[in-house]
Hints:
By secondary structure, this protein is an alpha/beta fold. It has helices at residues 16-28, 48-59, 74-81, 93-110, 128-136, 147-158; strands at residues 4-9, 31-37, 65-70, 85-90, 113-118.
Amino acid sequence: MKRSAVCPGSFDPITYGHLDIIERASSLYDEVVVAVMINHSKKSLFTVEERIALIEDVCRKFPNVRVDSWHGLLVDFCKKNEIPAIVKGLRAVSDFEYELQMSQMNHQLAGVETVFISTSPQYSYLSSSLVKEIATYGGDVSAYVPSSVLTQLLKKVKA
Ligand code: PNS
């Protein structure tokens, strides 16, 4: 049986921290679906289509990774796609409390398991929000996002 997992997130935009987790998940599972979760109450810099295109571009090198989007509960996405596991990166203890709560809720709701991968130390302080803020004020974020993402990000913040 094919082992599948989902890597969910906002990916606004995808960073090297996300990519680290996606790459490591792709070595553990036969198929990894990166799911861009749509949340209309959260203001985003990139449209869902732009986020998907950027993720597809940087994940092209991983043949068992595909990209999708979803509006609604993550467990419903898992049910629809027959995915039994969610993979999440854990950066620090501060991530843990909320992630634990979500993992327990998702298990309770639909029996979906959450597998945590500890973020590589060089990305433990990295977040899309910080990258956007730094780029907005003219800081250098080239160490945190792939070049295709950087190009689009700089266009957005200069617009
Ligand atoms: O990149 P983010 O914004 O930290 O990702 C959080 C995300 C989108 C993975 C999480 O908010 C989520 O799973 N949202 C989908 C809606 C849902 O299932 N909510 C109930 C969680 S128990």
